[in-house]
Amino acid sequence: MTPLQKNILNAVKRRPMTLRELQNNLQVDNSRLRTSVSAMVATGELSMRNGTYAPGFATYVNANAPETIPCTLVKLAARFGFASRDDGEGDIFIPGRALHGAMPQDKINVKLFDHPRVEGSSEGEVVEVTVPNNRFAGTVCLSEDGRLAVEPDGCRDVKFLLAKQGSEGVHLGDKVGFLITHRGNRHSDHRAAVVEKFGSSDYASECAKAILYGRNVRLEFPPEVLEEAHAYDDATIDPTEAAKRLDLRGIPIFTIDSAETKDIDDAISLQKLDDGYELGVHIADVSHYVRPGSALDEEAFERATSIYYADKVIPMLPTQLSNGICSLNEGEDRLAFSCLMRLDENGEIRSYKFVKSVICSRVKGVYKEINALLEPEEGADLTDLQTKYAAVLDQLPVMDELYRKRLVLRKARGGMDIESNEAKLVMDENGRCVDIVKRDRGTSECMIEEFMLLANQCAANAGRTNKVPFVYRVHEAPDAEKMEKLSATLLACGLNAKFKNPIPTQLELAALLDETRDQPIQIPVHTGILRSMQKARYAPQPLGHYGLVLADYAHFTSPIRRYPDLAIHRILSEMLTGASASQLQKDFNEFAQQASEKSSKQEVAAVRIERDVEDLYKAEYMHSHLGEVYTGTVAGITPRGVFVELDNTVEGFVPAAQLCKGEPQVIDGVSMLDPLTGKSWMLGSSMKIQVAAADVALGRIDFEYMVE
Q1: Which helix (H) or strand (E) holds 527?
Q2: Which residues does 28 contact at the CB level (< 8 Å), separation at least 6?
């Protein structure tokens, strides 16, 4: 910024000025002033309205603003926004007049109001945008005066006029990616230009592309990453490397995944001993191929996780590795990192060791098929399945036996089994959602989960007991405030649950879960307990896992899909070479910290994307069922209305005005009462509804209440 531009900015900070006022105030040449002002408007340093100039919030820095709080704007609507404090101390409500044009994901400074409208709340004003975010996805619409505009995703009723250049061929209802090219002091002053055109917002697949664009998801791998990946085209394992490892190719090892899985991280083997069991969990040795400092590793660190949605995956690693040399494909020799565990007759861990190995999976097991073998239906012909699994068939009853014993131990320590519904989207050849079914978890899914949990537990124990830098999966105990809300929820459900201490034990919560399972109040109780929990995250400190009731827990079993697993493979590999604790501290302290922070952040972003995209496909499916009548379950209650979930996991909204003639009374988010009619609705109660609307672009479904 030139000295003249600094003087201009300082002048308009005091009050907006016309060009003539600026000239009189600064006593500079008119043409020079015009040139500087025009340049500052173009870059957003100034905004112009009604012939006057004021600071532009794109780069406005108010160095003298007292007691401002660094934040990120996380939500924006037409009349308000929410800013998340960078220090983690919660959110600040920003009234529309105090947003000054700030946009979601802008880094901002906020000054709190001395007298918020709601006593005790945090409310403030944006006084500075330090790092603007100008990249968004949205839907093409019309402004109030009929001009072409765009509404950013997640910002209802916020519209920006579109520049003509670049908007050719754009139609109403299209999903687009756009850049804010000019910022003013108000959102209505912003201007946008289309830079990506995805297609009609009637299609979930096009809306999904827009979401990925708006969230800055890397769809393609950079050239330098692909160049390294091409070295593994049609690769086989190096015989010299295999000769250095424990050769387990003679053991009947196999994988169990869903039928469509192509990136296979884990395989298992199990042998029954006279005094217990020997369980092997064999994980793809990704760290052998993805080395520190490589382009592959740097890209994997930035992505931190694969993203799965509908029938697609955005992988953490290129397919040459994720589906090729690292994937434990049937009948192919693979380098692995094995956790070999000895368990006693009750299923308790007696000892474990980690070894670099070479394996060959005997069969690609499928959950549905394994379930059919473990729990055969009466009269079912299993001849073909028994032939397919002949090499490992004798392991299945032993695996089931060990799993049942582990289940007893999990229940005894208070491991919580919270009911949750996962959806499986069924797609046609055009990528449209044609069915939604609830994803059922059979014995084999639960069995594999338990065996992976054992290996994860051993990995974390190795990190903690050897006092080396590590990336743990941690889940801390709930705080007292959340427990107060849970107690209010339980009381509203008619449960006078009394805990011995302010923070209940896992056994106490597990008992509540079991007591209400398959009961009408299951949904409010299970949902209430789930909401009372902290979010699991990654951390370099061994803080334990509250939900699993484990002192030691990490993620070791999915290095193809998750960077934390790859990170601890790298650390454990160095431990196996005999590196000292002090050397490991020197090599990995900073790495473990950075991997934990990055992976936690990217995991949250990926989960949000997966959920938001799933909502799009659900709306697409329900759009073809408009007018149909269903009976669902009340899954959420707010003063605005209730959310109803159908058997296929689809959730829609019923406005309170359809339910209540009077002002609805909501009790602890558990029930809604109409004081005029005496009618009430509670979480978990059934409700007959008709599908009224399904907006694919918003991922929103509206139901109409059907009086029974």
Answers
A1: helix 522-532
A2: 4
Alpha-carbon distance of 343 to 351, in angstroms, equals 7
48 exposure class (CB count in 10 Å sphere: 0-12, 13-18, 19+): buried
**Mean pLDDT on 557-569:** 98
* Largest separation between any pair of C-alpha atoms in the chain: 97
**Tens digit of pLDDT for each residue in 44-77?**
677 776 677 877 644 334 444 458 899 999 999 8
Estimate to the nearest angstrom the gap between the alpha carbon of 623 and the chain centroid: 26
Give the residue from 23, 53, 59 showing the smallest Cα distance to 38.
53
Q: Which two tokens stand for residue 530?
A: 């789930």
Q: Which of 483, 596, 575, 496 is nearest to 534 (CA)?
A: 483
String of b and e for 324-339 (b: at least 16 CB within 10 Å)?
Answer: bbbbbbeeebbbbbbb
What gap in Å lies between CA 596 and CA 594, rounded to an integer? 5
DSSP string, 151-197: EETT-TT--EEEPSTT-TT--TTEEEEEEEEE--SSGGG-EEEEEEE
Q: What mean pLDDT is reported for the chain?
A: 91
- Per-residue model confidence as pLDDT tens digits over 314-348: 999 999 999 999 999 999 999 999 999 999 999 99
563 with 303: CB under 8 angstroms?
yes
The span from the CA of 708 to the CA of 706, in Å, is 6
**What integer pLDDT is reported at residue 44 of this predicted model?**
62
Dihedral, CA atoms, 619, 622, 624, 630, nearest 10 degrees?
Answer: -160
593 CB burial (10 A radius; 0-12, 13-18, 19+): middle
Rounded-to-5 percentages of helix, strand, coil across the chain: 35, 30, 40
- Radius of gyration, CA atoms only, the chain: 29
Average pLDDT over residues 415-429: 86
pTM score, whole prediction: 0.85
Instruction: Kindly state the DSSP code that residue 324 receives in the 8-state scheme.
Output: I
Tens of pLDDT, residues 168-195: 889 999 999 999 988 888 888 899 999 9
